[in-house]
Structures are given as C-alpha cells and as structure tokens.
Amino acid sequence: MSSVSATVKNGEIVTSASQDSLSKANESNSGMDKDAFLQLLVAQMKYQDPLEPTSNTEYISQYAQFSQVEALNNMSTTMELSRYSSYVGKEVVIESTDSSGKSTQTRGFVDYVTFEEGKAYFSIEGNLYKAEDMVTVISNEYSNAEDIAEQFAKTIKDLPGVDSINVNDHGNTINNLYNLYNSIGYYEKGFLDDDDVAAMNKYVAKLNELLVQLANEAALEQERKQAEAEAQNAEAQNAAKETTPVSNESEQENDANAQPDDTSIAENAAAQGVVTPEED
Prior knowledge:
Elements: E1 7-9, E2 12-14, H1 17-28, H2 34-46, H3 56-85, E3 91-97, E4 103-109, E5 112-116, E6 119-124, E7 127-130, E8 134-138, H4 140-158, H5 167-183, H6 186-189, H7 194-258, H8 262-271
Antiparallel strand pairs: 1-2, 3-4, 3-8, 5-6, 6-7
C-alpha cells in the first residue's frame, strides 16, 4: 500500500479523509492474528516447565486449532473480496473519523478493490479508503435523478427574469426544459425543488403569451398585405376601364376609312372602260 504524506497547517498535522480511513484501519489491525498465535505457541514451547513438558498431543491439538483458525481466516478474506468486489463501478459514500472525532464524508465511484493485511480497501479517485467505512451505496437511478435535478436548477438559474425573456433567445431553452419535466417519472420529479418547478411554469406561461402575440401580429401583417394586394388589383382594373373607350373610337375611325368612296369607284370604273349606270 502506498505511503501517504501529511500536511502541516498552523503547526498541526492536517490529514485527509483517505489518511483518516487508513489510520483507523491500522489501529484495528493491532489485535490478535495468526502471527501473534504462532508467537505465543513458540513462547509456550520455549518457556515450558522442563519437569512437566507439554505433551505431543497438546501440540498437535494446538496446531490443529491454528490450522482451523487460518482456514477460517482465508475463507473470510475470500468472502470479503467477493462481497466488496460487487461495489466496483458503483457510487458510495465513505465516512471517516479523525483523531479529534470529526467525521468527514467522501463520495465517489469505486475504481477497484484491494486487500492489505486481510482488510479490503476501496480506490476512489486515486485514494484508498477502508471498505468498512462505507456508509451508503448510491444506485444509478438515484444518481441520475440527482443529475437531472442539478441540471434543471442550473437551467432555471441561468434564465433572466420572466419579463425579460424573448422567443428567439430563450424559446428553445424553456421548451426543452418543459419537455424534460414531462419526460421524467415521479421518482425523478421528487428530486426537483418546488420553487424551480414553479419558476418553470411561469416561464412557460410567459413564452405562450409571447407566441400568441407573435401569431396575432403575423395575422395582422397578413391581412395588411392582402388589403394592399386587393387595392392594387382594383387600381389596375380601373386603369383598364379608362383605356377601353379610346380604343373603340380608333376602331370606328378605322372602319370609316375602310368604307369605299362611291366617287372613287366611278372614276376607277371609267378609267378601266366600265360603264356605270347613270343616275336618274
């Protein structure tokens, strides 16, 4: 296990939550273990009464007890490894208590589990914490709901006042926020702050008001353009009616010019040797 350096501040040693957890683990490891059992066995053999030495049967019995204790210890370690390995990838909360009795909580995802001297340790953001200091396991649903609530609150905070919004700059943001609220379940909605939900409803109401106003303005503009087009069509029709009589007079003049002159016809006939009936 890697060594951990301490920080000195104002003449006192300041330890991190990881250091507090490891220190607590080292203190708990100071109890009796199999090594201490062997030392006691050797001391018993060394200082036994030479007049009444310990029998072989007692040694065999003690050795059997030692083997049983070691087997149980190995089994416990294996079970601990299997149990704590299931927390890899999950978000947990570690609560460490320093020498002054102050508790510090660390929250993060377990990267891996390691065993040192029969104890399990969680690696969280590069630091080791005693697995026994874990107080909370956070599910993915809980973490996801927290993230949604945090993003929801941030979006509300970044918007200007209700009376200062406009459709172009804030319409999409408010619409997306409203769609997000309607897409999540009751569990996720339980994480949202009531004030944030009330603020969202005010923004949605104001946005709808602005959209109705824009729709009315667009309808009025359409009516104005239609009236202008109708007026232009009427002027064109009136201009066409004023030019129609002039063209009729020209046609009449052309018809008059087209009628044959009797004198011209008689003169042409005489010139060609045609005799026309004399007038009575």
